[in-house]
Amino acid sequence: TECTTGEAEAFGVVVLGFPYNHFEKQEQGENSEVLFWAEVSSGFIPSFQFFEKGNVNGEKEQKVSTFLKNSCPPTSDLLTPSSQLFWESIKVHDICWNFEKFLVAPDGIPVMCLFYWDSSIPINPDIYSISNLKV
């Protein structure tokens, strides 16, 4: 079962977006342009917090990315062809493509990483299970 951002928030789930430009250089714009083009090109208006564009992989990756990736098993043994990747020091835990998602419990401990082709917010049973965790 999929759930929307609003349904997830009813369980205390907070959705955060971290734009980056690692895959086929799809996010080349400045921070203000990233959200503008998402809205113009697809009508997507996020109902969640967007952060500044940064690096999620490689030698200059953001600390939050390192923490999340190292806390969960890799989502796949496969990696995008290197011709479509734009960072150095490729690792098995690297985010494989756009829209990879991490489910983090209320106590700040990452629970799982969802592969990019799962376009939904984490499935309801996963949200139910972490919403019952005590902080």
Structure description:
By secondary structure, the chain is α+β, with helices and mostly antiparallel strands. It has one domain: Glutaredoxin, CATH 3.40.30. It has four helices and four strands, in the order αβαβαββα. A two-stranded parallel ribbon has the order 1-2. A two-stranded antiparallel ribbon has the order 3-4. α2 (31-42) links the parallel β1 and β2. The two termini are 26 Å apart.
Task: Characterize this entry briefly.
Helix content is 25%, strand content 10%. The protein has one domain (5-131): 3-Layer(aba) Sandwich (Glutaredoxin), CATH 3.40.30.10. The chain has helices at 5-9, 31-42, 63-71, 124-131; strands at 16-17, 49-50, 101-104, 110-114.
Give the radius of gyration. 15 Å
Shape-level CATH architecture = 3-Layer(aba) Sandwich
**How does the overall form come out from the CA principal axes?**
globular
CATH superfamily: Glutaredoxin
Number of helices: 4
Q: What is the C-level CATH assignment?
A: Alpha Beta
Number of strands: 4
End-to-end gap? 26 Å
Q: Averaged pLDDT, please?
A: 71
Name the assembly state: single chain
Summarize the main sheet: 2 strands, parallel
Protein name: Glutathione peroxidase
Pfam families: GSHPx
Family: Belongs to the glutathione peroxidase family.
InterPro entries: Glutathione_peroxidase (IPR000889), Thioredoxin-like_sf (IPR036249)
